[in-house]
Write a structure and sequence with these properties.
Structural class: mainly beta
Radius of gyration: 33 Å
Strand content: over 45%
Distance between the termini: 80 Å
Largest sheet: 22 strands, antiparallel, barrel
């Protein structure tokens, strides 16, 4: 009996000691071992009482290092993604085949915020070294994990904030709000030690997160901080000279880019013919740019996605900022709505007003006077943003955001000439006065609204219900008068008037419901539905013309078109293996118009494989479609470009893209990324040659196809006193339309073979930094007339001259290159943070032509007056100094 008691006492003591051993800290290095060898090393080196059947151990490679980790966390990692589990039994740790973790599981639900402002942090990483996995916060700063009961170490990080480690004893469902401290370092160090395979969380791959702090320090046009200027420096992104004309991504058109603000599509995103975006930098929280594999939740465009999320406002205290530069002035104010000790509400208002007209108008007036003309040109724009937030509870939140912006351009002038002639019959002196007047204007604007309700349905399931509204309207008017008067005596001899008004608009009203489901450690599922109503007024032209011989003209009106859109999507980001993560999904969309219903099936797939601790491989395949078409008639992307829908006769556009790439983390500071792609596009829409926006678009369009393929490369230095990147793109893109270039394939205008960009920032000390951009690229493709052909219509007495342009886009503009420099001084005075920026655009005044025009002049030749034509390049930006001063409180 005593022996039995002693044996029971010995077994119970052994079990207690073994349970305590599960919490012991262990440091051990595994180098290219099989799983069975790693377990044996634990027994030999650390005297861990492991019991297992070697024949049941699967062939899994282990190559990692643990420093002061709990034994339980090490075993969790070693047995991850195997059919094995462990339990403490009779003084030993028994490893056996099981699909179930014997420990009870609980949910961790959290929101990660910035401590200073209370703002939710989008895309913050939540990492569990013990399981070599983790997750990240969604667009609203939320995350969820399901973990077995026990003690866990979690690491939280976000760009621009200090990393934080927390130890959590999990014995019930837990919800919390975790604040991260601001990291005021200009160039934060790498978040994870890339020498350790545990320390890389493969999330949001193939995504460019635009660094909002870097764009504040890089050289900027007119001193304006702008998200588009940073996008222009990324590989695969093409623009016209100096950014004029919009954004073209991997052979796509400007209308192939989905640009959203808080989930609402934006139909005109630029000011000043593409030089600036409509997005006030004071309100941007995050800017995500996807050009390769964008997942199924994004819809409706062929080329790229720019997903902009606005800030909520400061939940803790009243704060604001002011900025003044050569182009605009802006200001913002934010803070809690009420006595906000519990951080339940906040507001944010921001405005930007153009002051460019103060410099532009007198210069243009002076220039016109030099040409013998009285007149001027004016240009103004403004943006206004507002956002309100209220938290009914930690699980229920309401957001209201609003944007309104407008551009207004006017150009007018008058030329008067007086001359005298002698009547040869009567020798009478006759006086005449010729008067020419013109007045034209164009104004356009966006209205954007969203009302969103976020609800935690379950610790693993978050729902977001959003009502959206987006409206773009364009007005374009012109009037010209030519008159000839005799003033001896005063009489009207001839009078001509031409006037017109062009209007166009698109209205998009929709409701959508999106779900985020954190389905365990290996799955992050998103699904949702969107229903929308679109109203198109693609162009109304009213015009009249009168002179002494003809009367008024008439009106021309394109039909108003209405369509209904329905979209459903589902996607899953899944960790298949410790080193392999995939994202796959389906987007199904429908568009009902002209009694016809289009259904489009769009599969998406991408993967990221951690081949080596410092080398990853990634690839993607996607099909995308869009019901909207942007018809462009201008050469520089004016807002007269017209959005039109698919109709009963016009099919949606579609594209298939394949991409394969690799990223090398050369060391803690340097990384190199290389990606090759191929894209085929069908049912592209274009105006036929010789057609302008004032014509009936439905009768003057042609459908075609295009291809784009190439390589994008990016070398980036992410930390240290000097940071920045070098990007290079080598690509081809072409078009083929039945009614353009006689049906022959021709290079797309933005078929730019070589495109090199450099962006560098050097932090001299805590206050001073210098920066520079250098851009070099092949010239854009364009057409020029090769000869003039004269012929005469039957019954006509006058010959007609027609210019022959030959093959389309057979010529190239000269190589484009430009150097910009910037100097930043940041300091604190009167309890305010100040930032003084001085810079220069196009330092060596390179004359980069935007396009060529034909200039005609009359010259005497061989005793006769002859007409001469020459091609003259129209320069975009000359050497331009910049200054901006900003203050924040």
């Amino acid at each position: 009996m005593k022996k039995i008691i002693l044996l029971g006492w010995f077994l119970s003591i052994s079990a207690c000691l073994c349970a305590q051993n599960m919490d012991q800290r262990v440091s051990i290095v595994f180098r290219n071992l099989n799983l069975s060898e790693a377990l044996t090393q634990l027994i030999d080196q650390k005297d861990i009482p492991l019991v297992f059947n070697n024949a049941a151990i699967p062939p899994k490679k282990i190559n990692t290092t643990f420093r002061n980790y709990k034994l339980a966390a090490i075993l969790d990692y070693l047995l991850l993604n195997t059919p094995l589990g462990y339990q403490v039994k009779e003084g030993a740790i028994i490893i056996e085949a099981t699909q179930q973790d014997l420990r009870k599981k609980h949910y961790i639900t959290g929101t990660i915020v910035a401590r200073a402002s209370g703002e939710n942090l989008v895309g913050a990483s939540v990492y569990l070294p013990a399981l070599a996995t983790g997750t990240y916060t969604n667009e609203y700063g939320q995350f969820s994990l399901e973990l077995p009961e026990g003690d866990w170490q979690l690491y939280f990080s976000h760009i621009g904030h200090a990393e934080k480690m927390a130890t959590l004893s999990l014995n019930r469902d837990t919800a919390f709000v975790l604040p991260l401290e601001d990291n005021l370092t200009i160039n934060p160090i790498t978040l994870w030690d890339t020498s350790n395979a545990l320390d890389r969380l493969p999330i949001d791959w193939n995504l460019e997160k635009i660094d909002l702090r870097s764009q504040d320090l890089l050289p900027r046009f007119g001193g304006e901080t702008d998200v588009f200027q940073t996008m222009h420096l990324l590989p695969g992104v093409q623009t016209g000279a100096d950014g004029i004309g919009g954004i073209y991504v991997r052979g796509g058109n400007t209308g192939h880019n989905l640009i959203t603000v808080d989930g609402v599509p934006v139909y005109n995103s630029t000011h000043a013919v593409g030089l600036l975006s409509i997005f006030n930098p004071d309100v941007i929280k995050t800017a995500k740019f996807l050009k390769g594999a964008y997942p199924a939740r994004y819809e409706g465009r062929l080329a790229s996605v720019l997903d902009i999320r606005t800030r909520d406002g400061n939940y803790n205290k009243l704060s604001g900022s002011t900025h003044l530069g050569l182009i605009s002035a802006r200001a913002s104010l934010e803070g809690p709505l009420f006595n906000n000790q519990d951080q339940k509400s906040s507001f944010l208002v921001a405005g930007r007003w153009s002051i460019l007209d103060q410099f532009l108008e007198p210069r243009v007036r002076s220039y016109k006077l030099g040409q013998g003309e009285e007149g001027s040109s004016t240009y103004d724009f403004y943006d206004f943003n507002a956002k309100l937030n209220y938290h009914f509870s930690p699980r229920s939140k309401l957001y209201l955001s609003f944007y309104k912006g407008k551009d207004d351009f006017n150009n007018f002038g008058q030329v008067q000439q007086r001359f005298r002639l002698i009547n040869p019959n009567t020798n009478e002196l006759l006086g005449f006065r010729a008067n020419q007047e013109y007045d034209e204007y164009v104004n356009w604007g966006n209205d954007i609204f969203s009302l969103r309700w976020n609800k935690e349905v379950h610790p693993q399931l978050f729902a977001s219900t959003t009502l959206t509204y987006s409206f773009l309207k364009l007005n374009f008017g012109y009037q010209t008068q030519d008159s000839l008067l005799g003033f001896t005596p005063e009489q009207l001899l001839q009078y001509e008037l031409l006037a017109g008004l062009y209007q166009s608009s698109i209205r998009d009203v929709a409701m959508k419901v999106d779900f985020d489901w954190y389905a365990g450690l290996k799955h992050y599922v998103r699904f949702g539905v969107r229903s929308g109503f679109l109203d198109f007024s693609p162009g109304i032209l009213q015009y009249n013309a009168t002179n002494l011989e003809s009367g008024l003209g008439g009106t021309q009106q394109n039909r108003n078109i209405q369509g209904r859109e329905l979209a459903l999507y589902a996607e899953n980001s899944q960790q298949v293996l410790p080193k392999l993560r995939i994202n796959y999904g389906i987007h199904l969309s429908s568009f009902f118009v002209d009694q016809r219903n289009y259904w489009l099936f769009q599969p998406r797939f991408s993967f990221d494989y951690q081949w080596h601790p410092r080398v990853s491989l990634f690839g993607s395949a996607r099909k995308t479609s869009q019901f909207l078409h942007l018809l462009t008639s201008s050469t520089i992307g004016l807002p007269t470009d017209m959005w039109v829908p698919s109709t009963g006769d016009i099919h949606p556009e579609s594209a298939v893209q394949y991409a394969l790439g690799s990223e090398w983390r050369l060391n803690r500071q340097w990384s190199l990324e290389l990606e090759a792609y191929y894209k085929g596009m069908d049912n592209l829409l274009s105006l036929s040659e010789g057609i302008s926006f004032i014509d009936d678009w439905e009768s003057n369009i042609t459908a075609g196809r295009g291809t784009a393929y190439g390589i994008d490369l990016k070398l980036e230095k992410q930390s240290g006193k000097t940071s920045g990147w070098i990007s290079y793109s080598y690509g081809f893109t072409n078009r083929n339309f039945e009614r353009i270039n006689f049906g022959e394939t021709y290079p797309f205008k933005y078929d730019r073979r070589h495109d090199l960009k450099m962006a560098l920032i050097h932090q001299i000390n805590d206050h001073w930094s210098i920066s520079g951009n250098f851009l070099f690229g092949s010239g854009l493709a364009y057409s020029l007339p090769s000869q003039s052909i004269s012929f005469q219509f039957p019954g006509s007495n006058f010959p007609v001259s027609v210019l022959d342009f030959g093959s389309k886009n057979q010529y190239r503009l000269p190589y484009f290159h430009r150097l910009d420099l910037g100097l930043n001084y940041q300091f604190t005075k009167w309890k305010l943070r100040h930032h003084l920026y001085l810079g220069v655009t196009n330092l060596y005044n390179r004359s980069n032509p935007l396009y060529y025009r034909i200039r005609t002049s009359i010259r005497p030749s061989n005793g006769n007056l002859s007409e001469f034509r020459q091609f003259v390049g129209v320069q975009s930006l000359p050497l331009l100094p910049s200054i901006n001063i900003s203050s924040k409180f």
